Amino acid sequence: MSELKLCQGPKCHQYHTKDRLKGPKDNKTYQTRRRSSLYYGSGNFCSMNCYNDWAEIFSDRAIDHFGRLTEPKHLNENNAWQKTYDWDSNQDMFYVYRNGITNEQRPLTKQQYDDTNYTLNERG
Ligand SMILES: [Zn+2]
């Protein structure tokens, strides 16, 4: 059996739903949801409500910890490459890198498309 994950929402147990009500018949309590898969916030939250509850409390601290933007980022031809795919006239799928500024297209292999580390964008 796969391991169950707990929703990280700080108020998850405060939402009165039947599935959160657990325990022996005479001592039921509303409990944080436990699931094999959670679908929000990179698999950490059971719902957008719980995700938003977490963000309301912890966003400032998380952003300060990982680095707050202090000036706007700029999209230019050096970082505007996006992986995409299309179908040719034979209905075969093909992969390309498309530059969102210059509209230049470069062919990609499926392996390059799937490789999350592969990029034509400048790092940084
Ligand atoms: Zn939750």
Could you characterize the architecture of this molecule?
- There is one protein chain.
- The chain is 19% helix and 21% strand.
- It contains two helices and seven strands; from the N terminus they run E-E-E-E-H-E-E-E-H.
- The longest helix is centred in the middle third of the chain and has 19 residues.
- It is elongated, with a radius of gyration of 22 Å.
- The site of zinc ion has 8 residues, from loops.
Secondary structure: elements and pairs:
Layout: E1 5-6, E2 21-22, E3 29-30, E4 34-35, H1 48-66, E5 81-87, E6 93-99, E7 105-108, H2 110-114
Antiparallel strand pairs: 1-4, 2-3, 5-6, 6-7
Biggest sheet character: 3 strands, antiparallel
In terms of per-residue confidence, which ranges show pLDDT below 50 for 5 or more consecutive residues?
none
Our estimate of the beta-strand percent is 15-25%
The unique ligands bound to this protein are:
zinc ion
Short description:
The protein is built from two helices and seven strands; from the N terminus they run ββββαβββα.
